[in-house]
Amino acid sequence: MKSPLRTSCCLALTALLLSSCAVLSVRPPVPADWTPRGSVPVMVAMAPGGGSDRSARVIAQTLNEQELGFDANVENKEGGSGAVGWATFLSEEGNGNTLLVAETALNTLPLVYEDVPFTYESFTPLVMFAQDSRMVVARKDAPYDTCPELVDEAGRNRVIAGSSGKTGADALVTAELEKAGGRFDIVPYGSTGEVLTGLLGGQIDVAPASAANAKPYLESGDFKALCSLSEERYDDPVLGRVPTAIEQGMNATVIMWRGVFAAGGVADVQRRYWIDKIEQGMRSQTYRDYIKADMLIPANLSGEKFAAYLDDYDAQMREIFR
Amino acid sequence: MIENLTIGFEAALSAENVLWCFVGVLLGTIIGILPGLGSATGVAILIPVTLTFSPLTALIMLAGIYHGAQFGATITAILIATPGEASSVISTLDGYQMARKGRAGPALAISALGAFVSAMVSLVALMAVAPFFANLALDFGPPEMLAIMILGLCTIVVFSGRNLPLGMAMGLVGVLIACIGVDVGSGTARYTFGSVELFGGVPFVEVMIGLFAIGELLNQLHIGMAAPIKARFRDLLLTKQDLKRAAAPTARGTVVGFLLGCLPGAGTTLASFMAYGAEKTFSRNRKKLGTGAIEGVVAPDAATNAASNANFIPTLALGIPGGATTAVLLGAFLVYGIQPGPLLFENQPELVWGLLVSFFIGNVILLVLNLPLAPVFAQLLRIRYAFMYPLIIVTSLLGAYSVKNSMFSVWVVIVFGLVGYAMKRLNFPMAPLVLGLVIGPLFEKALVQTSVLAGDDGLGVLATPTTLIILALAAALVTSPLWRGRLRRTKTAPDQDQDQGKTKAHAEKGSHE
Hints:
A: 11 helices; 42% helix
């Protein structure tokens, strides 16, 4: 029994030593032929199993498939709708050997909770690899068929909507609908799964849903889609029949981004390395399968362009969350 | 039904699938034993490993992990009061006491056996009535959930032991701790004192590891080195009397677990607590609960297993996750290119029925694996404490660290370890606190949702038959000390209890048909 004890003590000691090294060391200048080494943590600030976790695992896989001499490993640091993970990632400042996969909430969260210590500008944008949008779905027997009809009804009678969070895409959807003149009672839920349960059970009248989440219920006929808040219709036999809100005469879109970041203050050579390899990974079958299965909108903005997009996006979010 | 079963058996009984089911169950047991590493995380980590498998094989292995982890978590809960998962917290109450008395073997064996029986029963129910129960569960909106949570909070009465005000105070402390973090309704950060770590709330698993593992360990150190528990071989085996005593609690646990498991979001942890509460109320040996009674071990374990199977009802019939692990499994469906949703039973009969049949196989493997091993595991207690305690501390702290790779978790464990130690010294009841922690957030969410739904109706929203029945049950539970005393004076109490158990089981049968 002695030896396992000794091993575990050794392990604990090494872990302690390693962590203190990380704190104490002063980083040497980054050489021009820098490459990542060993294990590269790919941090995601959401729980295992959700959409963000899945996107991080896909990115890690596309990197590992290139066999570049390091191992990308997904680490989930969830809590506080992402606040915990992103605040933790701040401490990686200057460390090029780690990545962060994030999404829209990185813009919206600091606007809603003023006391978080980060903004989207705290990290180095590398590549935006996908966009997503939302549909507005209702039960099949609802008295409205389009988004303008829904807004109209919500101006006159009580309409109850579900929402899966204050800082996520659902909040953007209800904001757009309210901007158009509807008034909703919004029931907060913990996840999109719970929102759809509420809609199936008839406790709520309408719900925002991603294309991937909505599709099975549209196929089964339990729900009908009132409109899609994407810029164009989906390229899909079922979802393609759903008109966009713009087609219906409503100036409403909801676009979310998913992207990869490096820590703040990384060297230029590190930034260029990651942009190059991530873009390489996006040519793989793994990436294409992911975009198709999750019904995302493919996107590819890197470096400065991604940074400019984020500035634009943040300005829009300020309008909504002010 | 028969036809579907044939499809399922044909799909699941290939050598490859049985092998991976075995691997899954074994891995799951290990994952469950490690504190902090729960089934949800285990499944999420192993999804990429299964990418090269056929979808059915992959799902069978992942489901094996799910089932194995449930049991693995119980092993450490019973042996060293360190629950591997939230749902096995309650097993520490009586299971650990049994182990202290040298009866760790029977505790582990009956836990495996009870889990097996409840898994079999709940699987049959799952296959027979999944769509029916799925639709029933949909009618459970926020008001009904609120009623369930009120009932849950009322079980504090039975968990408090002799000192009711103290128990209620501990329950309140639990609810207060659960309030820390961003709230569901308004999205305001509460009691975070500027700490971003606290935004996500006080993490439950870490609190459990602290309260139970570290707290108990400090307490043992205080008392002084106890002699290692050396049980005779025949004490390690189940007796006929054990089996007899375990039968009714298993049945009750299964029913409670199955019903709660059907409801999306209620969770297996709540089921285990409610089942223990039911034992405290209805069991013949309710007085002995908490001192190492077999009823207190087998009922929560049966409930946990029934609930984790029933969790698949909303998952497979509607495409809605029933709990954390099924949510991860639903994500896995997408990875394999299968669209979960209401049409899954129609579009993928081979997959769904193959998966369901594999649950049977997985549970048989689990029993065959663990029943003979129970006495062997129990022998671990022979290890001298000089070796055992450092090992517990290291696994607890490493386990806590591994949940989120953060030192914050380790601090939470240490702080709550001290809290647990203080509570043990002062003889404060632990269970109400944990119950408050579990139910607090669920109660609050249901309350906020219900109040939005109510609009101008006010309390009228609670006036549905289901809510009223559940609230009446809650009222009966709170007042039970009063009427129970009166009943005992007029009649012999055990008979009365048995009758109640019977009518409850009977009512359940009715709703199955």
